[in-house]
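Q: What does the assembled structure look like for these inputs?
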Amino acid sequence: MKEKSQDKSQDKSQERVPGKSPGEVQGKSPGEVQAESHAKAEEGISSESTADDRGSGMKRRNFVRLVGGGVAVLGAGIFIYFRPWRALGLSKGARQAGRSLTKDYNAFLHIQQDGMISCYTGKIEMGQGIITSLPMMMADELNVPTDKIRIVMGDTELCPYDAGTWGSLTTQQFGPAMRAALAEARAVLVEMASEQLNVPADRLEVRDGVVTDTANPETGISYAELAKGKKLEKYLDVKPPVEDHTEFSYVGKAVMRTDSYEKVTGKAIYTADLRLPGMVFARILRPPSHGASLKSVDVSAAEEMQGVEVVRDGDFIAVLSENRDTVDEAIVKIDAEYTFDELDVNDRTLFDWLQNPDSAVNVLRSTGNIDQGSRASDFIFESEFHDGYCAHASIETHTALAMLEGDKLTVWAATQTPFGLQDALVREFDMPHEKVRVIVPFVGGGFGGKIAFQEGIEVARLAKLSGKPVMLEWTREEEFFYDNFHPASVIRIKSGIDKDGLIKMWDYHLYYGGTRGADAIYDVPHVRITNYSQSKKTGPVHPVLTGSWRAPNNNTNTFARESQIDMMASKAGIDPLEFRLKNLKDENMIDCLKAAADKFGYTPAKAPSGRGIGIACGFDAGTWVAVIAQVIVDRPSGRIKVERVVAAQDMGLCVNPQGAVLQMEGCVNMGLGYALREEVFFEGGKVFTNGFDNYEIPKFSWIPEIECVILDRRDKPPKGGGEPVIIAIGAIIANAVYDATGARLYRMPMSPERVLEALEKV
Amino acid sequence: MEEKLSFTLNGEKTEVLIDTSQTLLWVLRNHFGLTGAKYGCGTGFCGACTVLIDDEPFRSCMLPVADVAGKNVVTIEGVEKNGSLHPVQKAFIEHDALQCGFCTPGMILTAVALLMKNPVPTRQQIIEGMEDNLCRCGAHNRIIDAIETAALEINGGRKS
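A:
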């Protein structure tokens, strides 16, 4: 069978010149090293760029290039229509939303006359499993079975305001707020029952949604009979406590996903699966580079195509058609000319570029005195670690559907931020909040990449311009181009230990990454953490868009910190686990390390032991994690195969141990990508990485055996579970490679070429 | 150009008047309303759009619909038999072998085809057979386990 030839307009050259390698820095103070590196960066820039400084401290260059061309094939289609809200099981209704999470319990639930309870949350389901765990919390707080709960998610008209689904915060923050609200609802219902049954409230107990007289269990009244389908009127001056963990029926038990049936049958509705009468598909004219501006454009060839409408609002130009293939054919018929104003940096020069001398310098923590710490140290270690840009690469691209009905705008979008998109639409179109509704169906993966909602604004503009319902499903190429990448960064660490292997000094310098996880988690008397970020003098430093990527930058910080810890352990001649335990005071971290070691069957040995075992620990989203890996390094090819991973975490109360394990496993497997392979190639604002052929994400053959341990902390508040384990994956692999071979890796991803390079230095 | 196109879709003989240069994925989703096959990359690298054509897995994002003339096309919506889930679907549920679910239809169809060809695959053969289907959430281990379980059920409980 023939396969269609694909339009490949972008340069996909994969030839790479390796840049300056990071690594151990010897015989220099960090200050000296920094000065030298900045000098090199300056040299590199001036030799390559045309002179257009614009006073930003960063050089740019200008040039002009043409894009466009393509062959048209006409097509037509017939559509199957169904109403999205019906498909999603939603009914239209009004619910007032504030701009911070309300305490009014009525916003969280509606007791229907048939006994079903609708529970509302502004959070969305993107695979992380809160569609299963939130109803468990709801059921326990209301004392009803989970099958009586119907959860409504991510609808700005029905659900209480929520800032967004990110940061592993649903269980940590929303959960307790929701439980408090539902506890009040339950207490109000018990009071109502007390009046109606003429039984004192303290004799009443809720059993499966029926308020029951404990002295006379035959007497009771159901929530449905009490509420009669109406909003509850009463509020309590003194708020009741939430259910004690010893009383839980659901929370703490392992429950399988509740959305599996829909997802294995193809019935689960994602944004792109929605259809509206008269709906058209869109493709938007995209610039070839960040920093490109449209100079001139000719849309006539696209306009001449049958069934194609070209819409334009300034530089915002799109083609619309009822036929999805037709928009692909039409968009390449637009001839556009651009001017370019790009940063003069690429994936080879990046790490010198990031160490910009004009950066804003911010000391995040200063404990003791670094000079004093140096004097107290018998061995000093200086290293420089590099990490490049990484893409979120959810399998579902950013997708949105917009519909205007009179003065009412409804946007369905694959976003982690429904209320943020609503706010943005309100601003963009100067519309009142009640006239803008955002609904989020199932989301096909987010990982922080769908916090941004550019597609939601674009599709609404298209619906306004055309007067038609418009579906916009970004192509994979658009997805890479507009992704808010994990930021590239440089980390320099100078640290010292005494003769006994105690860490005396820790001087940490972070350039242009996020600060999550940047703190020294060990018990060190002299610590300084310095962050370097964009300033007025530097102007923009990242040439591409950057944002939150699962456990934002904690992956890089943990890679650097835990690699450095291992180097010190090795020099001290102490087993890496022992070295950590010796230098930690944090009991939770110590417990995690011991739990992981126990599950792994860890036996102590000084690295490199030849065994290929790597260990790391860290803290993320309120949760402590310790992870151990066993790897095999294929010396001829430089390929790393991760054989086994054991992860232990203390996440406080674990609401759904089954769901938590799925997230831990997902963190291990996704983490293999950033650790081993994922890297964005670019030149100025032009992103070469544009598909799964040149951005390789983890595959079945990479996958290790995974074992997870969740520490029993049911008496503690619940913490995040979606991100913590991923922070350690780069570090455990780097440390395991060192243990196997004595080769130290300072740069992620740890690609075969970089492993070979490191092996040569042993 | 609209042309008459005949093929079997999920067990039913189908005849449509359609522009046959259109992509199979878009025809399935937009003409037939079968939205189980997903757009993930449009270049055949992710497998989210996988459907079965004469029992072989194909990337529907890469095929002109004309190519299925006279053939037997099965999408995720057509995998259930007599109202009961296919053993692979059941095993995916049993093992929680999914998270966001976007790659799931393509995973299941690839696995169904794999087990038709090789009803008693080794774990390594499952890994090789599934290698080119991408999952970003990291459900891989569970997907492999689920396919092993489905193989057992298909073979009447025999150990592979």
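The two ends of chain A are 50 Å apart (CA to CA).
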